[in-house]
Amino acid sequence: MSAKLFALLCSSLVDTLYMVGVSSAIAFIFGLPLGVVLLVTERGQIMERPALNRFLGSIVNAARSTPFIILMVLLIPVTRMIVGTSIGTNAAIVPLALAATPFVGRVVEGALREVDGGVVEAALAMGASPWQVIAKVLLPEALPAIVVGLTLSVINLIGYSAMAGAIGGGGLGDLAIRYGYQRFRLDVMFMTVAVLIALVNLCQGVGDFLAKSLRRDGRN
Amino acid sequence: MAISLQGITKIFGQGPTALKALDGIDLEVPEGTIFGIIGSSGAGKSTLVRCVNLLERPTSGKVLVGGVDFTALSEAELRIARKKVGMIFQSFNLLSRRTVFGNVALPLELARWPRERIAPRVEELLDLVGLAERRDAYPSQLSGGQKQRVGIARALANDPEVLLSDEATSALDPGTTQSILELLRDINERLGLTILLITHEMNVIKEICHNVAVIDKGRIVEEGAVLDIFTDPREEATKSLLSEIVGVNLPERFGGLDFSREPIEEGDLVVQLRFFGDVAAEPVMSDLIRRFDVDVNILTARIDHIRNVPYGTLVVGLSGEEWQRRDALEHLRSLDLTVEVVGRVGKALRTAV
Prior knowledge:
heterodimer; A: mainly alpha; MetI-like fold; elongated; B: alpha+beta; 6-stranded mixed beta sheet; 6-stranded antiparallel beta sheet; 16 strands; about 35% helix; disordered C terminus
């Protein structure tokens, strides 16, 4: 591999890590409370608000059913407003974060749903407020499952970020398209894919390890 | 604190699919007693106990705990009131990611105790339930009995005056059940805690309860002191629950002979005697044989104790001349026994057994 190609790969990897890192962080920050709200406002849950729940649910579903590549295009005006441009890694972060937030929301909701209802009931019987139930019971008990879900989200974002390359988002996907596809540099394409595979495996490994070390239910 | 349930009705769902789980329950649980509610599954007992701390809000009726009407409290007031009502569960409901210590500390954290006061209180509670050396274990590393001890310590953390027990021993083996029941009795005596427990096991009632109420199809069908209910059950639901421990299931055949509930000519009488208290110590049978010249054949028997009072059931075959048997029965009925002629067996019984 030429030094030039190596440098290209490195800078693209950094771009990808930057895009995925920042958009993951944003998606977690908004997705976590979103997931909590999606669960606790459901009918029969500790803060039931059926109307709010349906409203949020339909927005989340709409966002999740829009293909990412379409979402990116649709969001160009918003991206321009926030970042000032619609091209480059910073610009890619906007649609990435927006696409990942509802996904994280659903993932967190699912993880919280797995918490044994009896434990929540026990906390309520002790006089816990709904907020205390969330902070002391739901989130801590669901943490291993949340970590598994967040790993999934990060891996999804790695995939999406490669797609962002198609509209000039930068990163590994951009490299693969410009060199591998448009210039028929198959070696570049394969290298890129290899780096992506390694990256995904690394994320999965770290996520699995974390989740496992957090579990205390006898499954580790 | 005493518990008073007044006209509790709980209906799940609406319209034609609505299910009436509780149907006008009135119940008084005196302060400091262990009160058991027993019923078969689906009788509504779990819903009932959950109505006491309003985990389940009754459709109508009042719940008074220590004179306070829980149903009239606001959410915030109810949360404070609930701290004085501990609860333990069949499935323990411990937090899997907290240690024994952390689980017992939870209610104190919820009540916003300062950290430095939590530790000594938790230690004290763990000593009380005999789990001090397992403080750093996680629930998955504990046995069922140990988990329930953690549950009990947790329920007692806020110094409640009432303890609700929702089938707390149903997931435990008999030996462990026994030790948990002893712990509950100990707590009741030492802390003066009022305990309301529900169970489907008569054995639990027998071991520790002072009073018992039998629930069937959402209604209390029978209620009273445990000894009274056990020795003189009036309702079918009670009798069927009781048959589990006091009763004797009459077999189809006795010693190779057919048993019949209808009179058979020349057959021996099969008499079921239920006795309790002092009469158990008297030589009723030998007395019977001597005085009436009848033959008495013990077919099956069961004797047990409720709070040190013996009680039991004896099924005997009674043979002799018609008048002898009649006199013998009359004599039995004059004693402090419940006598019931349950059927007949063929005459050859005497030689068969």
